[in-house]
Structures are given as structure tokens and as C-alpha cells.
Amino acid sequence: MQIVRTIRIILCDRIKGLETPSAPFAAWADTDVTGFMMTPGQVKQTEKFFAEHPHLSRVLTIDTYYDVTTLDGGGSHELITTVEEAVRMGVDAVKMLFPWNISRSERATMCARVGKIVTACDAWDIPLVLEPVIMGAPRTDDVVIQEEKVARIAYDLGAHIIKIAFPGEERTARLVDELRVPLVIAGGPLAGDVDDTVDAIGQTLRAGARGIIVGRNIWQRERSEGERVLKEIGTLTRGVSFTS
């Protein structure tokens, strides 16, 4: 099974390095990237480009989460498109956030929404990438432990792929062993130097993760540094094989 090396390019605002939302695809397509995480607007605007580059996968974000400023939540989660529309667009997977620092009633609503999306994905034979996350939180040990628990809830709801911020090699290995669904690791915000990023990715792969979704740790670096990160990721992933 090939490990997916996806660049996360998701915009709900003007972000440094991504001022023109459709520009990065051509800029990074000939590197070690195997796919992109995209918004509906980006998918629609780049249909011709991806038709000419069929080796690149597309993961469509179908939801959004607004006004996250504090650890105790307070944002608003909604869908922005449907599974049926994703299938019509011809993308390879859909992706949703699964925030958990919300009220109990909001959690119930969130789980019901995810359940409906899972049912639609099963009907259309398209995978759902679900991302357990404590929104607006620093990466403390308590937050990492919470996200690990929420990953189990994501599994129980039927997520086909679980995307999680890197919780450390030991915890990643435990999640892979216990949940037995493909686990992909998010790169998170730009932090540390190239060697730190590559080391974290190496730990992830040794622990059994099936994919790497890295965004800002590539395209917010100087171009030469971003290319080095991608080259190192490619080398690491090509050295991994799975028996099942």
C-alpha cells in the first residue's frame, strides 16, 4: 500500500504563501507530493490541471469551523458541501474536522452529522478522512491524551481514515495497533527546523502511520527548505512497506 504524501492547502482566509489559492498545485505537482487537500473552490478552478495530472489525489474538505480563539471552543461547525457533490467532482476522498472541546449537546450533534456522512460515503464508496482535534489548544500532554481518546470515537463512528496531530511514536503505534484503520498524521503549523519536521515524520512512519498530510511546514518555508522537507519525506516513505 502506497503511503500518501499530501500537501494541505485549505483556505478560509488570506494566508501568507497562499494568496492565490489555485497557484500552489502547479508549483508543487512535480515534487514528491502524491496529492492535495482542497476546498470546493480550488477543485472547481483546477479541474483541467488535475485531469492532466491524474497521478495526483484530491481530498475535498466538506466542512468548516469558525471563530476558534480559545481552548473551550465556542466555534461553529457546519458542512459546506455534500458527499454527492464530492463524487460528482471526482475527488478521491472527503475530509471533516471532528472538534471535541465543545458542549455535550454539540458533541451529540457532531456525532450525528459524522454518522450521516459516513453512511453517504459508504453508499458512494468514497472514504471519509476524519480529524479528531481539540481546537485552539497548545500541544500539551493533556491535549494529546484527549485527542487520542477522540480518535477512538472517530473509529466508533465509522471513519475510514483518521487524521491526527502527531501524538508521539509510542501513542501513534498504539492507535495503529488498536484501531486498525489507516492513520494519517497532520503536520500542523510551521514549527522547528527541517530536521525536526523530518524526525517527527520518521517517527510517525516507524509507528505504522499510512500517510502524511503536511502543509505549512512545507509551503510556508523558503522554497529550498520546503523542497528538502518533501525530498526527505519521499525517501522515508519509499522505505516503508506494509504486509496488510
UniProtKB/TrEMBL annotation:
GO terms for molecular function: lyase activity. InterPro entries: Aldolase_TIM, DeoC/FbaB/LacD_aldolase, DeoC/FbaB_aldolase. It comes from the Bacteria. This is Fructose-bisphosphate aldolase, class I. It comes from Rhodococcus koreensis.
